[in-house]
Every structure is written in structure tokens, then in C-alpha cells.
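Person: At home tonight, work slowly through the protein below, taking as long as you need, and write a paragraph about the fold.
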Amino acid sequence: MQDEVQHNFTHIIPERLESLECKTGFSRHVIRRFYRAFKQHCPGGAVTTNNLRPVYAKLFPLGDSRKYAQIVFNTFDEDKDGLITFGDLLSGIASIVKGDTDKKLSWIFGLYDLNGDGHITRHEMLAIVSAIYEMVEDTRSIERAVHRHVNRIFEKMDLDRDGIISKEEFITSCKNDQLFCNQLTIFDDLWW
């Protein structure tokens, strides 16, 4: 995981409204609504991992959500500066909410492709599946379940059996799974 970056910022000014509209496809009204909520929780104009971890800890009080919170943080931190600005957050949300199936799947793929090299290795898949399991279960009891889960994922998605899942394999496998495609549409009306 990326080392925690210490930031001494007093206030980060968000991108111009017109730029955010163009970049995300959200209306001015929706962007303003998001911004008010964002500023309420992040008055300095950015999220750090220290801000995000308590949110996940409240959502998943029975497990350890630190690893997963860091993975999500890294996915939203577009420029990898250790901060999630309002623009970073809005762009990620737009990909999930407003994007077509390929855009949504690309964002999800980026969540799993921990090092950003365009492939999901078994090691990366183990890391993220473990982080997900750790949020809801005791770490000691999950190792075997995590390995079984990752083996099933690789069986289904590693179409050429080369030990890695490419972005194309990931998207193709997800698109061929009707249940998964139906679940992607949950995001379509989430924010309205």
C-alpha cells in the first residue's frame, strides 16, 4: 500500500463549475448539491486516508476496513498526490453513475488493478478480496475462503489461462454475467 502522505493544506479550491459539468456530465444543480455535502465533511477541500478510514470503520464496525479504505482511496486519487479533491471524487462518481457499462467496468477494474499496470494478478486479487472479507469477518477465519473466492474468479475471468486477468478479459467476463450486469444498473439512479 502507498505510504500515508502528510499534507499541510489549508484549503483546496475546486475546479470551475463549467469544467466539472463538462468533465462529469452532471448538472450544475447536482454538482452544487455534491459540493455542499463534500464541504460539510471536508471543509479543507480534500479527503485524506485519515478522513476516509473512520467512515469505513463506522460502516463496517465488526471488521477491519483499513486496507479496503486505502484501496478505494487510491482508486479515487486520480493524480496520486495523497488527496482526493472534489474533482477527483466527482469524476469517480460520474464514471460509476453516469458511465456506460464499459466505463463502469473500467472503473471497477481500476479498483482491482492495484498497481495500475493493466492486469490483475492473483496477488492483487488476493489483496482486495482479503480486504473485503476483513471488513466483515475476523482475519484468522477468512484465509481459506479468500483463496477459494479468488480461485473461482480466476477460473471464470482468466480466459486465456495465463495467470493474470487483463482489462479485456475482465470486461468480457463481467458483460457475459447477466446478474453482474443487472447489478451495475443499481448505480444508474443512485444519486437522483
Notes: Residues 1-8 have pLDDT under 50 and may be disordered.
